[in-house]
């Protein structure tokens, strides 16, 4: 599973990245997590409000700081 956190490095984007890592630790297995800070790439997803949460190329959330449980719910 490839997960991308879209954002320019703001505090909410960093927190979403950390929450994602915590959720993946709970799930186990191998998952790729990448922070995407390039505005062109972010806009290619159609995301106008960051942070964005993308799973395997599909935008799952924008403009919201997801907590660990919300991330787990999306990934299951």
Comma- or semicolon-separated keywords:
single chain, 76 residues, alpha+beta, Glutaredoxin, 4-stranded mixed β-sheet, 3 helices, 4 strands, 41% helix
- Report the CATH topology name: Glutaredoxin
Shape: globular
What fraction, in percent, of the residue positions are helical?
A: 40-55%
Low-confidence spans: none
Under CATH at level 1, the class stands as Alpha Beta
Q: Quote the distance from N terminus to C terminus.
A: 12 Å
In short:
It contains 3 helices and 4 strands; from the N terminus they run βαβαββα. With 76 residues, it is α+β, with helices and mostly antiparallel strands.
Characterization of this structure:
- By secondary structure, the protein is an alpha+beta fold.
- The protein has one domain (2-75): Glutaredoxin (3-Layer(aba) Sandwich).
- The chain is built from 3 helices and 4 strands, in the order βαβαββα.
- The chain has helices at 11-27, 39-44, 68-75, and strands spanning 2-6, 32-36, 52-55, 58-62.
- A 4-stranded mixed sheet has the order 2-1-3-4.
- Helix 1 packs across helix 3 (68-75).
- The longest helix is centred in the N-terminal third of the chain and has 17 residues, at 11-27.
- The termini are close together.
